[in-house]
């Protein structure tokens, strides 16, 4: 087989694996979240359908695929229909530039567990994942529902604001590593525990985690759904498969965020002592993913004005100061 044919086949298989694995993980994440929240709140969680309630996933899937698909009257039907697709597609596309595991050799060929190893990976991920936010806004304004419009607009304002916080935090990382490539940033941290960027950029780490919670619509910083409204925000009018597409995109973005934090700040897929890099990548990403559920169970929902004040009066000034101190440290 020629090198080009092997490359084309390899890329095609990688795409299929990413779609299959991450779509499945998004479903498993809903089960994990329900069980973890139940444990935190002294409830049982899913336990009736199958052992430990695992078959509840199949029951939910059947329900979503067979539920009536309702499109509201007087809605913008085309935009209403494509908004969930935008959310899911953009979330999966952003995974193309994220290295999942260390490279390995197969049939004499070096396999890189990344679909597209591009030099501007961080810019690509920020751009593609940013389009997911517009799916939320489009779904809200196309629904012909005042609560959906308010939820979508409120979410878009918060996400655009916190994108500045996340971008400023990432600029500090790029200044230290000298690269936008996630592979190069991972290699920068290959000298042991204290080469991890969480120790060199602790403030950037905290800022990026907070921004990520906003951008993935997670409590306590989620503004798409307001508890006082007693409705589902932008997704109030969605049902069945279209509703599930939004949440497949959301959970896929959460997984991508956990991988990003691991690669940017927690040493990535480098070996740690006697533990292989691929095991470290899975363990660290799983632990970071657990933070989403931990925060949802432990903290109350913040008001929209509190979230926005925190962004402009606290986080953005801190991000700018962090950039200045990083630049001074590099110069000195």
Structure notes:
This protein has 332 residues and is mainly α. The protein has one domain (3-331). The chain has helices at residues 3-40, 56-66, 77-94, 121-141, 146-177, 182-188, 197-200, 202-215, 240-265, 277-298, 304-331; strands spanning 104-106, 109-111. A two-stranded antiparallel ribbon has the order 1-2. A hairpin with a 2-residue loop joins strand 1 and strand 2. Helix 5 runs antiparallel to helix 8. It is globular. NDH-1 is composed of 14 different subunits. Subunits NuoA, H, J, K, L, M, N constitute the membrane sector of the complex.
Task: Quickly list its features.
332 residues, two-stranded antiparallel sheet, 2% strand, globular, NAD, quinone binding
Find the count of extended strands (DSSP E, 2+ residues). 2
How many domains, in number, for the residues?
1
How would you classify the helix and strand content by structural class? mainly alpha
Strand content: under 5%
H and E order:
HHHEEHHHHHHHH
Physical arrangement of strands within the biggest beta sheet: 1-2
Biggest sheet record: 2 strands, antiparallel
Q: Termini separation (Å)?
A: 52 Å
Q: Average pLDDT across residues?
A: 86
CA-based gyration radius: 21 Å
Question: Which geometry do the CA atoms define?
Answer: globular
Helix content: 55-70%
Number of helices: 11
Low-confidence stretches: none
Catalytic activity: a quinone + NADH + 5 H(+)(in) = a quinol + NAD(+) + 4 H(+)(out)
Keywords: Cell membrane, Membrane, NAD, Oxidoreductase, Quinone, Translocase, Transmembrane, Transmembrane helix, Ubiquinone
Membrane topology: Multi-pass membrane protein
Family: Belongs to the complex I subunit 1 family.
């Amino acid at each position: 087989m020629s090198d080009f044919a092997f490359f084309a086949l390899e890329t095609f298989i990688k795409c299929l694996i990413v779609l299959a694995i991450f779509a499945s993980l998004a479903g498993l994440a809903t089960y994990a979240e329900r069980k973890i929240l139940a444990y935190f709140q002294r409830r049982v969680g899913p336990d009736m359908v199958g052992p430990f309630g695992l078959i509840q996933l199949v029951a939910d899937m059947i329900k979503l695929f067979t539920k009536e698909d309702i499109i509201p009257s007087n809605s913008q039907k085309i935009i209403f229909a494509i908004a969930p697709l935008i959310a899911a597609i953009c979330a999966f596309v952003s995974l193309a530039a994220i290295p999942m595991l260390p490279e390995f050799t197969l049939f004499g060929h070096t396999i890189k567990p990344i679909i597209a190893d591009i030099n501007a990976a961080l810019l690509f991920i920020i751009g593609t994942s940013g389009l997911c936010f517009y799916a939320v806004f489009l779904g809200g304004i196309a629904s012909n529902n005042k609560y959906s419009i308010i939820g979508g607009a409120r979410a878009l304002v918060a996400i655009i604001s916190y994108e500045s916080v996340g971008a400023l935090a990432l600029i500090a990382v790029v200044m230290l590593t000298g690269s936008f490539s996630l592979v190069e940033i991972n290699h920068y941290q290959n000298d042991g525990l204290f080469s991890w960027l969480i120790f060199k950029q602790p403030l950037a780490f905290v800022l990026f985690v907070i921004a990520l919670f906003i951008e993935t619509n997670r409590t306590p910083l989620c503004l798409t759904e307001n508890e006082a409204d007693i409705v589902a925000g932008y997704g109030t009018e969605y049902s069945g498969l279209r509703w599930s597409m939004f949440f497949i995109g959301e959970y896929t973005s959460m997984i991508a965020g956990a991988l990003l934090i691991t690669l940017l700040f927690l040493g990535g897929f480098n070996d740690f002592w006697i533990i292989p890099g691929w095991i470290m990548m899975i363990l660290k990403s799983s632990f970071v993913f657990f933070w989403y559920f931990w925060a949802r169970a432990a903290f109350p929902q913040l008001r929209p004005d509190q979230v926005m004040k925190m962004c402009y009066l606290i986080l953005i000034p801190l991000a700018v100061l962090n950039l200045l101190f990083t630049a001074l440290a590099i110069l000195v």
